[in-house]
Write a structure and sequence with these properties.
five-stranded antiparallel β-sheet; three-stranded antiparallel β-sheet; 8 strands; 42% strand; globular
């Protein structure tokens, strides 16, 4: 697996569809998936699916709200960041992939996916995902 931005969603944001994804909203979701999730970052109009989604104590379908979202720009570079997210007191098995879902946008489009690199499990513990200090993603408009 790999991490990436769902190109179909960004095409719909920039083309005549003008998909209204507000990156500063505090209601996007982090959905967790097992290693069987194989993201296709090039698919047209990618949307949330419960296929291969994790289930377990302390986890609700579609995941957890993304907080602290911030879209900023500096020297032609667009940066998107958020707070860390955690599932305390959870019992989860083989968490490998995370999708960000624009939950209150028509059709629940996927914004980005993150491959955690390893499978993570908790047993009445805390799964904590901390974004990189450089942000969730950056786009350089002045290459």
């Amino acid at each position: 697996m790999a991490s990436g931005l769902y190109a179909g969603t960004f095409m719909d944001i920039f083309d005549t569809t003008q998909l209204a994804v507000d990156f500063d909203r505090e209601d996007h979701l982090w959905a967790l998936y097992n290693p069987s999730k194989v993201p296709d970052y090039n698919v047209d109009a990618p949307v949330y699916s419960s296929t291969n989604e994790i289930s377990g104590t302390g986890y609700v379908a579609k995941g957890k709200v993304v907080t602290g979202t911030a879209l900023s720009k500096l020297a032609g570079v667009l940066k998107y960041s958020s707070d860390a997210v955690q599932w305390p007191g959870s019992t989860l098995t083989n968490v490998r992939h995370v999708d960000m879902v624009a939950d209150f946008t028509a059709g629940d489009p996927l914004i980005m996916g993150i491959d955690l690199g390893l499978n993570y499990s908790t047993s009445d513990g805390t799964l904590l995902i901390t974004p990189h200090s450089s942000g969730l993603f950056t786009i350089d408009f002045t290459p």
